[in-house]
Amino acid sequence: MDFIFSTASLFQWELERIFYLAGEAGFAGVELMVTKRPETQSPEEVKRLADRYGLSVDCIHAPFLMAARKVWGDYRGKIELSLQMARHLGAEVVVAHLPYLWQWQYARWIRRNLDASRKEGGVCLALENAMLLKLRRPVNFSFYNNLHALTRFPHLVFDTSHFAVAGVDIFRAWDILGERVRHVHLSNNYLKGFDDHALPFEGRLPLERFLKLLSAANYGGKVSLELGPGPLEARLGERRVLSNLRRSLEFCLSSV
Questions:
Q1: Pair 141, 100: CB distance under 8 Å
Q2: How far apart are CA 194 and CA 176, in angstroms?
Q3: Pairing of strands 181-186, 156-159
Q4: What are the residues facing 120 on neighbouring strands?
Q5: Residues 6+ apart with CB under 8 A from 95
Q6: Cβ-count burial 43-61 (b if 16+ within 10 Å, e if not)
């Protein structure tokens, strides 16, 4: 089980700055979030940066965020170009989001196309459990976003903070979905209904115990630290971010 850093954690920063910090913090690999920034959409530029800072690109997060809704067209373009980038960079997993409730065509496509044998050139296309939005109470806006429905898919991304927002116990979720999990998004949560993406040693989720569970289960995928710029204290600059990244990685390594 290897720990990598998600560039989504600092999505407003230049990609080279993020790669530099990931390397300095001790990470050997990253998960690339494709955003509106042109450098995140260029396999050649990403490879140049990865080579420069001695990092592997282990996962591609397709541009499904609302802020990137115009990047690479519709769901088919987002998935196909992400798979192409993954093959180019040697990444093993592409993360896709569940369809929103108004994305009927995407919902039908997922149900028909994500079967147990679906791998594209050695790359696994995996679906991430979605976060709920905090209105008066957490509200779900995605198809298939419950434990029972997720069992119909063979390849999943397990996001600890998203399950916390939904009020789902992460240990129960692992018991039900663990054999399908190909990638983990790790962050903590304060259990107040918001998608905190807090540092792993903060918040109320028992992530040390969760990581020990993954180790005992011989989980063979990557654990990607997908943290928020707020918890990382990005507003205070690189030195503080680097300190928080090192502390987060140390916590994870000491938990297994």
A1: yes
A2: 24
A3: parallel
A4: 123
A5: 31, 59, 60, 61, 62, 126, 128, 157, 183
A6: beebeebbeebebbbbbbb
Tokens 């990598």 sit at which residue?
Answer: 4
State if pTM tops 0.90.
Answer: yes
Strands 56-61 and 119-120: unpaired
pLDDT at 30 over 80: yes
d(CA 128, CA 122): 19
Q: How far is CA 231 from CA 13, 27, 100, 118, 242, in A?
A: 15, 18, 27, 36, 12
**CB 129 within 8 Å of CB 97:** no
Contact (Cβ atoms closer than 8 angstroms) between residue 30 and residue 7: yes
Tokens found for residue 75: 């769901």
Per-residue pLDDT at 58 exceeds 70: yes
Q: How confident is the model at residue 119 (pLDDT cuts 50, 70, 90)?
A: low
**pLDDT, the chain, mean:** 95
Cα separation, 130 vs 70, in Å, equals: 20
* Helix-helix angle 75-89:104-113, to 10 degrees: 50
Instruction: Centre a 10 Å sphere on the Cβ of residue 92 and count the other Cβ atoms it contains.
Output: 19
How high is the pLDDT of residue 118?
A: 54
